């Protein structure tokens, strides 16, 4: 957390990033949104006639064409966009089941004793970080 004693108000009219984006300059996402809305004349394969369609529509058509040719990445993108990404379930399983920390320490001590090692020697041998 910032030290309140070091906080100084910025004087009005002073920029802390003088080399930053110039006033009135559009950012990339705004420019891309405008490009996606731009309409281009084309023969629509769905409507089978010459129409003006937004670039966004044309890109989706190209993606669909690739997917229909078997492009797995295009298929994945289309399914993710229309059906939602598949949820990934991660299950954590330990070799010793659900042991409490105390039970785990006791088990490690037991294994070390069976192997004739100290707990530190067993830890180094097995590369354990405990």
Q: Which helices and strands appear, and what pairs or packs with what?
A:
Blueprint: H1 28-37, E1 39-44, E2 49-54, H2 55-68, H3 72-83, H4 101-114, H5 119-126
Antiparallel strand pairs: 1-2
Helix pairs in contact: 2-3
How do the SSEs run, as a string of H and E? HEEHHHH
User: What characteristic shape results from the CA principal axes?
Assistant: flat
The secondary-structure class comes to: mainly alpha
Task: Count every helix, treating DSSP H or I runs of 4 or more residues as helices.
Answer: 5
Quaternary arrangement of the chains shown?
single chain
Portion of residues in helices? 40-55%
Q: Would you identify the regions where 5 or more consecutive residues have pLDDT less than 50?
A: none
Q: In total, how many beta strands?
A: 2
Largest sheet: 2 strands, antiparallel
Mean pLDDT: 85
For the largest sheet, list the strands in their spatial order: 1-2
Rounded to the nearest angstrom, the radius of gyration is 31 Å
Percent strand equals 5-15%
Cα end-to-end separation: 31 Å
Q: Keyphrases for this structure?
A:
130 residues, mainly alpha, two-stranded antiparallel ribbon, 5 helices, 2 strands
Task: Describe it.
The chain is mainly α and 130 residues long. Among the domains are: 28-84, no CATH class; 98-130, no CATH class. The protein is 45% helix and 9% strand. It contains five helices and two strands. A two-stranded antiparallel ribbon has the order 1-2. Strand 1 (39-44) and strand 2 form a beta hairpin. Helix 2 (55-68) crosses helix 3 (72-83). The radius of gyration is 31 Å and the shape is flat. The mean pLDDT is 85.
């Amino acid at each position: 957390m910032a030290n309140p004693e070091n906080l100084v108000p910025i004087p009005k009219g002073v920029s802390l990033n003088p080399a930053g984006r110039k006033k009135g300059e559009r950012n990339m996402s705004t420019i891309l949104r405008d490009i996606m809305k731009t309409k281009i004349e084309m023969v629509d394969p769905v409507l089978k006639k010459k129409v003006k369609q937004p670039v966004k529509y044309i890109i989706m058509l190209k993606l669909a064409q690739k997917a229909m040719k078997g492009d797995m990445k295009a298929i994945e993108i289309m399914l993710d966009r229309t059906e939602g990404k598949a949820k990934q379930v991660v299950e954590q399983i330990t070799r010793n089941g659900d042991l409490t920390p105390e039970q785990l320490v006791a088990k490690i001590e037991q294994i070390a004793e069976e192997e004739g090692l100290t707990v530190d020697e067993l830890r180094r041998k097995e590369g354990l970080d405990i």
